Amino acid sequence: MMYKTELIEEITVENVTDKINKKISEMEKESYRLITMSFLGTERAVLVFKKGLKGSLL
Question: Given a cut of 70, is residue 57 above it in pLDDT?
Fold first, then answer.
């Protein structure tokens, strides 16, 4: 099992959905799925991904 943490910066109310969805799509192409997400203040978010087999519970 591999985990990867990604930092998204310069978030605004207007771009938050696009920036997060873009990162999730990028990571899914590498077989990572989103596990958790936390906002750091109003301009940054940390996304934690886990790599595993698609559809697997592991």
Answer: no
